[in-house]
Amino acid sequence: MKASVWRGLMAVGMKFHHFAEPKPPRPSFKIVIPSRLSPRGGHFKLVFYVPDAYHDSPEDSRFPVVVNFHGGGFTLGTGTDDARWASAVVKKTGAVLVSVEYRLAPEYPFSVGVEDGTDALIYIASHADELRLDRHQLALSGFSAGGNFAFTVPLMLYDLQHEVGRRTLSQATETLKPPKPAYGSSSSTNSSTVNLTRPTTLRTQTSTSSILKLTDLEPTALEISQRVPDLTIRAIVSFYPAVDFRQTREEKRATNPVPEKNLPPMLTNLFDKSYMHPEESIDVSDPYLSPAAASDESLRNAYPQDIVLYTCEYDMLNAEGVTFGERLSSPEIGKSLHGGLIKEVVHAFDKKPNPLQFPKAADRCYNEACAELTRIFGGRVSVEDRRQLDQCKVVERFEDQEDGPRNASLE
After folding, report:
1. Complete edge-to-edge strand list for the sheet that includes strand 133-143
2. Quick check: helix, strand or coil at residue 314?
3. Which helix or strand (DSSP H or E) is residue 202 part of?
4. Which of 3, 38, 119, 342 sits at 20 to 30 Å (Cα–Cα) from 74?
5. Are strands 336-346 and 306-314 parallel, antiparallel or unpaired?
6. Kind of pairing, strands 63-69 and 336-346?
7. How far is CA 365 from CA 16, 229, 359, 362, in A?
8. What is the 3-state secondary structure (H, E, C) of 216-257?
9. Given this model, what pLDDT does residue 181 score?
10. Poorest-confidence range of 3-12, 92-101, 256-265, 304-313?
11. Rounded to an integer, what distance in angstroms lies between the CA atom of residue 386 and that of residue 359?
């Protein structure tokens, strides 16, 4: 089956997923930005979800920001797929969530998605003041393929900041076409293009499907001299990521104790052939593809101190995720690892197309990840807030590995 068919099927599944109460929010607004890192040029969208306080706070307020990457095997999905995660972030942490609608394979194979993710981070930091964001209170999050980007984007960013030379920023010369109205919007003011000339315009805009043009924001050092802005990534939150393509799919499948719960080969073959194309030109040891292949020094320097990682027991990606997490928390790298291995759940357990109920385990997983972000952003949370998932699932906590896994009782 072609990627276009699977995209249609996934879109239907996400509609069911979003139908369950409480329904997730629609985006607050979108921005179309240019590609500077990809030799192919072009442009893509950033999808913004903002907390209520964003519209009512003083003019000089700056909000933490979580830059998110959706899943879909690098081939499927949209920037609104993680609307439930966005809802949890804006409500529980008070941060703005920006979902990157990176370009998909096979039309845009490796490494366009990583380049788009890095471009997005640089753009957000460059325009942080205008968007009322705190460029030193940044976190990255992602699911599955997006979880891969949460780990590979910092590596590309670090290389750019230190002029390693694998990528360079170029001046955006493409003239952007007028953006299309957001899906489901009418021809009324709810599908307008906003003229964002100053922050107050953004604050008073109430449209949930507005799209901002590149020219609506004032030029910064990024646009004028292609300079990487000063920014600080405070945390990475990654849900069931793919981190090591040096292993074959057969090797990965064999690690699942319940192999029939793996994603079907028809789907994973599509993902791999679409993203890693042409196959003969792909180096599976490239850290921009397999972050587990990066050196200890690179991981130590490029990543923030706090890493929140969740893996799923009945998932072919579980073993590589756990191994990567253990390495990140080793004395050689020294990161603080949170989250854990969630027992008896499958890959993308939080994205079930159930129109009647959002899974309790997914809700609590999101809430405890948000508690970690709140703590990292300087707020106060309890140990219970950071262990909410234990109330309904057995979790082998990464923090507790020195003393043996901590298994909580089921409800």
Report:
1. 193-194, 211-212, 29-34, 43-49, 96-101, 63-69, 133-143, 233-239, 306-314, 336-346, 395-397
2. strand
3. helix 199-204
4. 342
5. parallel
6. unpaired
7. 20, 33, 10, 5
8. HCCCCHHHHHCCCCCCCEEEEEEECCCCCCCCCHHHHHCCCC
9. 32
10. 3-12
11. 18
